[in-house]
Structure formats: C-alpha cells, structure tokens
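Protocol step 4 of 6.
Sequence for Transposase (Caenispirillum salinarum AK4) entered exactly as in the expression construct, tag removed. Do not edit the line below.
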Amino acid sequence: MMRTFGTIIRSEQAEAVLAPFAARMARARHWQFRELHIKGRPKLAVRKEAQQRFGLTKRQALANEFDLDQAVTAWRGMMRNRIDRLRDRMEQTEGHIARLERKMAGAPPALRASLKMRCHQKKRHVGRCRDTMAACQKTLEGPPALCFGGRDLLRQGAVEAWRDKRQGRFLLVGSKDETAGNQTAQYDPYNGRLVLRLSDADAETARAAGAPVDRRGRVVFENVVFRYGQQDLANAAERGIGITFLFFRDDRRRWHLRATIEQPEVPKLTDIRIATVGVDLNVEHLAVVVTDRYGNPVERATVPFPVAGTDGGTAQAMIGDAVKWVCDLALRYEAGVAVEDLDFGRKKAALKTYGRKHARRLSSFAYSKFGEMIASRCGRHGIDLTRVNPAFTSVIGGVKYATGRAMSRHHAAALVIARRAQGFEERFVCMGDKALGGPGRSQPRHLWSRWRNVHLMASAGGTVPHAPRRSDDGATEDGRLEPRAGPARRRRRTATTASGHHQVRAAVARARV
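Step 5 output, structure tokens:
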C-alpha cells in the first residue's frame, strides 16, 4: 500500500536552489516526451541521450520516464472515461426517443407536434454525442495530447505564468538500494534535515544566488517536518525502503514536498461476515447502516458530505471527517465496510431520478476523493473493505425495506449494499403489508431482471404489482374464495393464468402508455 505525506519547505533559499534544478528537469522531461511518445524512439537510447544533453543522472532520467508514463496513462484513462460517458448519454437519450415515439402514436395532433419537436432535438443531441465520441476515439488512437503547464493559462494569454508553472515541478524516484532510499534527495526524519544533491551547473547557479552549497554540490534544508507521517517515514528509514519525492511550486511561490513510501499490509482486524457497515453516498450526506451477521440493521446514521461548489480545503476536511467516522464505527462493531463500486458518471446518472438539479450538486472531486480516502484508511487500520455492484439498490431498498423498517430510501439503499456484501439474497418480496407479485412458474432467471422491471415502472410513474392477500377464511382482497394449495398439491397453471413475469411486463406497458 502506497502512502504520501506532504509538507512545505520553509527556507529562504528554496527558490534559489530548487528553481534552476526544476527548470533543467522540465526541459529534459519535455524533450523525453517528444522523443518517446511522439517519435517513438527506444527508451534506452533516449535515456542515454538525455543524460548527455541535460547533465542528468540515470536515476533522474528514469524519474522523468516514470513521470511521463503516469501522465500518459492518466490522459488515456480520461479519454476512455469520456468516451464511456458519451456512450451512456447516447443510450439514455435513445431510450428517451423511443418513449417519445410511443407517446406520439396515440397523442392528439397538438401534443404530437410538441413531442415531434422534442424527439427531433433529442436526435440532434445523439448526433452531437456520436460526433464527439468519434473525435475522442480518433484522438485516443493517436499520440498523447499533453500540455505541460495546462491549457487554461495559454487560453488566457498568460504565457509567462504558463512557462513558470510548467517548470515548477520535478520528481525524484527512490529505491531501496540507494542511500536513505533516494539517490538525489536524502531525508533524515529524526532531525528534519533534507539534503539535495545538485549538478555542477545548478550548484554554481545556487551559489551565485547566495545559497549555502558545499563543494560537493549538496545543499541542506533544515526543519523540514511532516505534520502527518513523520513516524511512518522514520519506520521507512529503518526498514531501508525507497522514498519518492515530488517537489512543486504553488501560486504563492512556496515549494511543497511530497514523500511517497510503500507500507506493508496491515492484518485484518474486522470481518464482514460478523457485521457490515453499508454506506450509500448521496449529494449532501452519507447514509450509513450497520447490519449484524444475519443481515438485520442494528444502527443507522447520516453523515454530512460536501456538495459541488464547496471550497477544496473545506470539502477535503469534511470527507476526511466522514471517512474517519465510518471507520471508527466499523472498528467499534468489528465490522467490515461495504461501499458501492460505481464511477462518477453512472452515479450522477442514477441520481437524476431525484431530479437534474439534485444530481448536479454531486461533486466529482468529493466522489473520487471519498473512494481514495476510505480505501486508504481501511487499509491502514485493517478494516475489511468490500465494493459491491450497486445495481437497483435504491429500488430494492425503497420497495422492500423503506416502509417495513421505517427508514428513508437512502438508508434502505445502504442496507441493501450491506446485505449484498454479506451475500444475502434479494428475493422479490417486501416487508410491507403487501407482497410483490411473484412468478407463476419456476424459471432460472436472475432476480435483477425482475427488479429492473420494477425500476422501469417506478420511473414511468406506474405502480408495482402486488399479490392479493389471503385472509384466514381463504378469501382474497377482492372477496373471491380460492382453495389453498397443499404442500404436495400444486394448482396447474392454465392458459388464462399469466406468470408473474408477464404481469410485471403488462404493468410496465400500461405505465408507459
């Protein structure tokens, strides 16, 4: 498990020492990107030429390669994610077009004209999505389109600020075979001393600026203390593992330091089979439900969560507090944690059932940061973390548990997530005063296919079909008397008795009309 800790280098000589070093590393990184990812030259030849051209060590050239590989991988992942989102939008819009066309068939002339215009606009939207997806696919097949320093400053015409930003960072990859875990930068966590090894040219530039550089080209930064992770770095130094450092300059021209180490896996202290903390992430809050070993809820809670537009620092603090509260609850019950395995685009599409304005309030930063932070904290504290498919959790929770358990639909969805992580079934029954219409025949079908029909009925404004209740005298709710079926005798299904599956399909068709 990788962990990263950050601090600020509070030294008056930081700019004079780190700025020339970062500029040289940036020039080498940009040249290596062109040679490797645009021209397609072999890595070994590019690495040797970069060492001679820019005066780099082998480890520094390897660090640039690693940094570029990470950037290209992130860019390709972003493009694939955009293509997937466009494909999902096309599928949703095409389904909306099909519903509009069905409404047009039996609509009066005035309404038909309005529906026809809406259908036309939806088709135009599908065409735009298709063209954009084709352009993204063509871009993905070509060389990576990276802009070091970002495109925002270039669009604004701030060329000097853009150049300053693209030359304001460098990465130093560590290894366990090197002194203090890194060849270029050595950090002593016991006295807070950071020693940086400079090239001859950078050392002369730093001396000219008045920086205290010794004759071997080394500069020492004192009082470099990490607010969080100081003891972890000390343990890493004792184990002799590699430490990777990232230096970057912020808008206030302060130099930040990020130290990344690999920590051993912590043994599991909780078991999801004993108890489970189910978490359903919503726009303004986390719905949390604790279940016992039998899948019954024993505690529920609502934890605040940041919405879109919240300040970055405030949002990160709120997410950290929420993750800490959930993990402390899991440790108290010795329970595992179950969360939904869903990306941001699909989660936002699912929240549109509560309204588009409601879905827009979900923050992409908060959603992704929550997944990262809960995985990191569970790994550090030995909490069993399980990610489940959240298909139809809101539908199942709302139909089966919301009324019978007297809980909100969000807590009911969290209950379904917890039970699904424990491996419990999701039979087509509910806890209310009525039972859902079950199938009249035994057919090996997945239960989610039937819950999908319920979801379609709910989205179309229909009602879920219920099986009639039978009183003690054998009469159903409509007053008819029917014989009870014995344990060894089953009533044969005639041609006029439709199965529960067909009942659901008929109800869906009626709801759509």
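Step 6, annotate. Residues 3 and 37 are 29 Å apart (CA to CA).
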